[in-house]
Amino acid sequence: MKATKEHSVLPNLLNREFKQDIPAKVLLTDITYLFYKNGKKAYLSTVLDASTNEVLAYNLSKSLKIDIVTDTINKLMNSASFLHKDAFIHSDQGVHYTSPIFQKKLKENGIGQSMSRRGNCWDNAPQESFFGHLKDETYIKDCETFEELQEEIDDYIDYHNNYRPQWNLKKMTPVNYRNHLLNVA
C-alpha cells in the first residue's frame, strides 16, 4: 500500500499523556510483523487502551492491505461494550493510518484521531512495549501454520488482559485495573 495525495497526517493530540485514568478514552494502535516457522510472515494490528494496557481489539493477517486496520476497528466497535464519549485513537504516521479509508472509518464510529510525530516511537511507547512483551513471551517462531500462530496470539492476548499483573497498574491485570478505575470514578 502506498500513500497518495489523499492521505493526510493529523496532529499529535496525546503528547505522551498516556495514563489519564479514564478507560477506553485514549486508544493506541499499531501494526507489527510476526515471523514464524520457515521464514513465514504475518502482521498483527492491535488497539490498546492506554490507561489500562488492555488489548481491546486485534487482527492477525497474512497481508498488509488496508483491511488489516479497518477490520481491527470493526472488531473494536463490535466487542467494546463501552468507549468514552471523547475516545480517540493514536497511531504513527504509517500509510494505513493516514489513509482516507481508515480516517473515514474512525469518523463513522465517532472516534477522534491523533498521530505521533514522524519517526518518534516514544510517542506510542506503551503500544511498542506491548509488542515487545508479546514477542518475548510467546512461541511465535515455533508456529508451523497461520492457524497455530492465530491460536498463540489469541492465548497470549487472553493471558495479557486477564492473568498478567503489571507493576504500573498497581500489580493488577489490565481487566482488573479497568474495573478498578470504573469503580472509583
Automatic annotation (TrEMBL):
GO terms for biological process: DNA integration. It comes from the Bacteria. InterPro entries: Integrase_cat-core (IPR001584), RNaseH-like_sf (IPR012337), RNaseH_sf (IPR036397), Transpos_IS3 (IPR048020), Transposase_IS3/IS150/IS904 (IPR050900). This is ISCpe6, transposase orfB. GO terms for molecular function: nucleic acid binding. PROSITE patterns: INTEGRASE. Gene3D superfamilies: Ribonuclease H-like superfamily/Ribonuclease H (3.30.420.10). Residues 19-182 form the Integrase catalytic domain. It comes from Clostridium perfringens (strain SM101 / Type A). PANTHER family: TRANSPOSASE INSF FOR INSERTION SEQUENCE IS3B-RELATED, TRANSPOSASE INSO FOR INSERTION SEQUENCE ELEMENT IS911B-RELATED. NCBIfam families: transpos_IS3 (NF033516).
